[in-house]
Amino acid sequence: MNPWVLLTLAGLLECAWALGLKYSDGFTRPIPSALTLIGATASFFMLAQAMKALPVGTAYAVWTGIGALGTAILAVYLFSEPVNALRVLGVGLIVAGIAALKLA
User: Can you tell me where the transmembrane regions are (predicted)?
Assistant: First the structure.
């Protein structure tokens, strides 16, 4: 499979397990905890597969960027986290960084 596709899927799973941490309530809820651990394992596995073909610095930065971006956006909708100019700027910088790494 294309390493960029794997990396994108790994980043999306990072969003899922990061949000799962919230739903697991400190790993006190069994089903959300199990799903979080499964998502994290799958995310790490896909990241490792993508790193076979991509530079480690690029792959890791894109993976964390997708995870941070997706988690920040979804947290606004799922948990009513506040939106302000500085947060929007930060998310915009993450997107710009991901695009720059993809083009490099």
Answer: 28-48, 60-79, 85-103
